[in-house]
Amino acid sequence: xxxxxxxxxxxxxxxxxxxxxxxxxxFGFAHLxxxxxxxxVGARVLDGELPEDAARALxxxxxxxxxxxxxxxxxxASRVAAVxxxxxxxxxxxxxFAARAGGAVLDGRDIGTVICPxxxxxxxxxxxxxxxARRRFEELRGKGVDTTFEAVLADVEARDxxxxxxxxxxxRPAPDAVQVDTSNLAxxxxxxxxxxxxxxxx
Length: 202
Ligand code: C5P
Fold this sequence. Notes:
Layout: E1 5-9, H1 16-27, E2 30-33, H2 35-46, H3 51-57, H4 71-80, H5 84-98, E3 104-108, H6 111-115, E4 121-126, H7 129-142, H8 149-165, E5 178-181, H9 187-201
Parallel strand pairs: 1-3, 1-4, 2-3, 4-5
Family: Belongs to the cytidylate kinase family. Type 1 subfamily.
Domain Cytidylate kinase: 6-51, 65-198
EC number: 2.7.4.25
């Protein structure tokens, strides 16, 4: 299974993170949430560093920062993610992760298109923006964050527009990705579909 790679892309709160974690656990694969890399760069930029310097200075401990899940860091992440130098500095780490022994699941925006175009399994997970915003809103509220559904929806839509509109590695499905819409699909069903898809290729 060395180098066996599952690429799961999609917009914010589409369910790709949950699906990725579940299939990694199911098959015993390592999992990398690549959004955390951009969030960690974003957090450093909010602390005053320049995007490129921040990407170069990144260390594994940065990924443990509790602030990474905040809406402010999410927005900054999508801004630094549009900087080509930042993206270029993060490529090797992601490709090495994908090549590790025992199989790997990477989730993000450009895994199937740019980082691992030869991935054995590619999925593109989507859902309507209002459904995704509702999920993220409930999640933030559960964590005690004081926000409104409208604010979360505006955040999600701003990030979608930035991620799809950038010139370098825009968010889009790879031509050979299997698309899954989770708007009306329970997470268990989406996980089952992903497990079946991977089992076919093993
Ligand atoms: O997935 P997550 O919401 O944590 O990603 C945060 C931001 O990082 C995204 O809005 C996107 O701009 C950026 N990102 C990216 N490429 C990836 C993963 C995340 O551009 N592979």
